[in-house]
Every structure is written in structure tokens, then in C-alpha cells.
């Protein structure tokens, strides 16, 4: 058990080094992380922690043969560490699967940016979600006054959203603003 766990520690260290040097994860962060490489790296770190747990338990049992309880105790403790290391990747993956709002993008900031465009009077049906870990999507209905050219407003909003928030895909539906929209339930923004 001691030799096997020692070999496992060495192999897992080599694998972690290789994955850390791969193009998807090469020592510093990018906005376009490769989720598969990141998950594989975390998996190898988990295996390394488990191997260290087995090595620790094997050493204790080798030195003090009556302390066989060290094996399940180390397994339990190191399993908790592995669970902790995988929780961040699981959270990110579930955010994508559930089409949640991406981290670092504030709903109100996006809305305020849209309203800052000349001619945009209001917005509704604003939806922001993560398509992948590095590709964020959004859609919105933008209400413009009748003096504003819809093509110019669309161009300005698209450029602003790509520049400020780096959305991968933007869908904007232009609508003509009228005062009656203030009383329309479908034209109301979300309520907190």
C-alpha cells in the first residue's frame, strides 16, 4: 500500500504539471478558460489529495500496525478536501446548464448602459445568461422615440454592449416608444 500510494502521488504530480502547462491552462488566467482542461486539472488534484491520504494512512499503519483506523479516517478527511476542490467547477457548470446570469455582469449596469444610448427611452424583457463559461448571451426589447433612427440605435447599443460587457451574442428587438407602455404589463421590467 505504501509503494502503490507513493507511485500514485508521483504520477498525479506529473499529470497536474502537464495539465497546468496545457494551452487551456498555462499559468495565468484568460477570459476564455477551457472548462474541460480545468475540470481535468481539478480531477487530478483530487486524485493527488486522495493519494496523499492513502500514503499518510499507509505510513501510519506501517509505523503503528494497530492504528488501522487511520485508513478510513484519512479517506473521509481527504474526501472532504476533494469535494471542496470540485465545488467551484460544479458551480460554474451548473450556472451554464441552468442558463444563469454570468458572474461579473450586473443586470442593472447592462440596463443603465442601454438607457444611456441616444433615443432609447426604456427597455423590457432583458435576459442575460451564460451559454458557455466564456460566452455570454443577452436579449432585450429596446423602446426608442420616433425621432431616433432604429438602425443607428441598434448599431450603438450593439457596439456598447460588446465593448462594455463582451457579450458573444446580442439580440435586440427595437420597438417604438409610446406613453401607453407605462401601463402595459408585458412592457414592464422585472421586479425585484
Automatic annotation (TrEMBL):
GO MF, any single term: antiporter activity
Gene3D superfamilies linked: Cation efflux protein transmembrane domain
Matching Pfam families: Cation_efflux, ZT_dimer
Domain Cation efflux protein transmembrane as annotated: residue spans: 2-98
Coiled-coil blocks: none
Domain Cation efflux protein cytoplasmic residue range list: 102-177
Gene Ontology terms: biological process: response to zinc ion
Keyword Metal-binding among record annotations: yes
Superkingdom per UniProt: Eukaryota
Cellular component aspect of the GO annotation: late endosome membrane; lysosomal membrane; neuron projection; plasma membrane; synaptic vesicle membrane
Cell compartment(s), UniProt: Cytoplasmic vesicle, Secretory vesicle, Synaptic vesicle membrane; Late endosome membrane; Lysosome membrane; Synapse, Synaptosome
Transmembrane segments: 40-64, 73-90
InterPro entries per record: Cation_efflux (IPR002524), Cation_efflux_CTD (IPR027470), Cation_efflux_CTD_sf (IPR036837), Cation_efflux_TM (IPR058533), Cation_efflux_TMD_sf (IPR027469), CDF/SLC30A (IPR050681)
Keyword 4Fe-4S annotated: no
Membrane topology per record: Multi-pass membrane protein
Keyword vocabulary terms for this entry: Antiport, Cytoplasmic vesicle, Endosome, Ion transport, Lysosome, Membrane, Metal-binding, Synapse, Synaptosome, Transmembrane, Transmembrane helix, Transport, Zinc, Zinc transport
Family: Belongs to the cation diffusion facilitator (CDF) transporter (TC 2.A.4) family. SLC30A subfamily.
Job description of the protein: Probable proton-coupled zinc ion antiporter mediating the import of zinc from cytoplasm into synaptic vesicles and participating to cellular zinc ion homeostasis in the brain.
Designated name of the protein: Probable proton-coupled zinc antiporter SLC30A3
Organism: Hemibagrus wyckioides
Species lineage: Eukaryota, Metazoa, Chordata, Craniata, Vertebrata
Amino acid at each position: 500500500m505504501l509503494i502503490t500510494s507513493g507511485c500514485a502521488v508521483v504520477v498525479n504530480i506529473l499529470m497536474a504539471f502537464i495539465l497546468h502547462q496545457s494551452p487551456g491552462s498555462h499559468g495565468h488566467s484568460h477570459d476564455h478558460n477551457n472548462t474541460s482542461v480545468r475540470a481535468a486539472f481539478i480531477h487530478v488534484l483530487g486524485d493527488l489529495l486522495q493519494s496523499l491520504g492513502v500514503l499518510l494512512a499507509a505510513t501510519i499503519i506501517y509505523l503503528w500496525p494497530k492504528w488501522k483506523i487511520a485508513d478510513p479516517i484519512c479517506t473521509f478527511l481527504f474526501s472532504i478536501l476533494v469535494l471542496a476542490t470540485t465545488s467551484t467547477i460544479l458551480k460554474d457548470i451548473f450556472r451554464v446548464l441552468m442558463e444563469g446570469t454570468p458572474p461579473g455582469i450586473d443586470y442593472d449596469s447592462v440596463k443603465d448602459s442601454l438607457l444611456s444610448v441616444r433615443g432609447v427611452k426604456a427597455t423590457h424583457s432583458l435576459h442575460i445568461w451564460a451559454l458557455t463559461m466564456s460566452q455570454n448571451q443577452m436579449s432585450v426589447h429596446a423602446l426608442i422615440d420616433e425621432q431616433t433612427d432604429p438602425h443607428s440605435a441598434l448599431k450603438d447599443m450593439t457596439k456598447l454592449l460588446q465593448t462594455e460587457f463582451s457579450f458573444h451574442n446580442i439580440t435586440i428587438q427595437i420597438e417604438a416608444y409610446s406613453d401607453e407602455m407605462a401601463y402595459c404589463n408585458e412592457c414592464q421590467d422585472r421586479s425585484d
